[in-house]
Amino acid sequence: MAAHASEETEEQEKEMERVLKATYYDFANPASFGGIKKLSKTTKVPYEKTKQFLSSQDPYSLHKGVRYKFLRRATLSYGINELWQCDLVDLKHLGKHNNGFRYLLTVIDVFSKYARVSALKMKTAEAVKNAFENLFQQAKPNNIQTDKGSEF
User: Are 92 and 58 in contact (CB under 8 A)?
Assistant: First the structure.
């Protein structure tokens, strides 16, 4: 009797995998190449079984985004130009194509998400200071937040 129940369970497992595979790889099906929830709901196969199936499929595991979970400090801003966050983007490899401009000073207003960019040829404190002076002609922030780069 126990062997018979085991055979039924094994047959059910094979049937679930067949249904999952047929649905997942069927381009005409809206659940094809999708996520766990959608495939589970469409096929009516339990969530955990669907998750287990997808983790063994190359298209799903190769293209699934990686989730990074770590604590982030809250950034609060109470109005426009209250807080700007700044950093340099390194484009050394494109310098010869951009008339010698090898860096971008990026400035984002935290409240409005308005971005400003200034092209720089050198990554010196003097060059960054001049870029900030040009930006301050448009608007002035109450606070500026940067990383610990030597250019700041």
Answer: no
Q: What letter would DSSP give residue 23?
A: H
Task: Indicate the residue type of 61.
Answer: S
Element (H, E) at 118: strand 115-120
**Does residue 84 sit in helix, strand or coil?**
strand
Sort residue 81 into left (φ over 0), alpha (ψ -120 to 50) or beta.
left
Rounded CA-CA distance 83/25 in Å is 49
Q: How confident is the model at residue 6, as a pLDDT? A: 66
Q: CA gyration radius for the chain?
A: 27
Q: Are 20 and 53 in contact (CB under 8 A)?
A: yes
CA–CA separation, 126 and 148 (whole Å): 16
Residues linked to residue 90 through DSSP beta bridges, in sequence order: 103
pTM: 0.55
